[in-house]
Amino acid sequence: MDATALNYFSEHTDRVTTDRDRDAGGRARNARPRDALGRPLPYGAVGEERAPEGIVREPRRALAEAQELLDAGRPFHAHEVLEDAWKSAPEAERQLWRGLAQLAVGLTHAARGNARGAAVLLERGVGTVEAYAAAPPHGIDVAGLVHWGRVLATRARAGDLDAATVPRLTGGPRRVEG
């Protein structure tokens, strides 16, 4: 490698690694502001308040916070809460929380008008949470979420995102007709 190429590489490698948002442990953190649906905004713009990342919450608190965010039309932010729960859950529940996060991302895609992304993530989430239907922990309405996710995924595949409803994570889901 000649001196010019080495200099270019060195300059750009340093810029890439030092300009990235990182936490104290060196893990990537995106401090860029986001809108209500999680889309990145330019640095310096005023965005939506975000759920803090890396917070370990009791399962019922995580579910309550995620439900509040879903009800407020902020499924991307609900996904962040559910993702934290997934990462901190005991091994036996990890896939359940992952599936809940996938359902929230599917709803995010629906709200953004991305029918294909909505269908794919909703179907993936349904397939992941369905294994917990026989004995769902923490009062999670797995059967209701599976029904909701399948109906909404079918509608999304047909291009119908106007009927996207907010699911109930626990205790008596809001059903969609199917």
From TrEMBL:
One Pfam entry for this protein is: DUF309
Biased composition range(s): Basic and acidic residues: 11-37
Name the segments for region: Disordered: 1-44
UniProt superkingdom: Bacteria
What name does the UniProt record give this protein? DUF309 domain-containing protein
Originating organism? Blastococcus tunisiensis
Give the taxonomic lineage as stored in the record.
Bacteria, Bacillati, Actinomycetota, Actinomycetes, Geodermatophilales
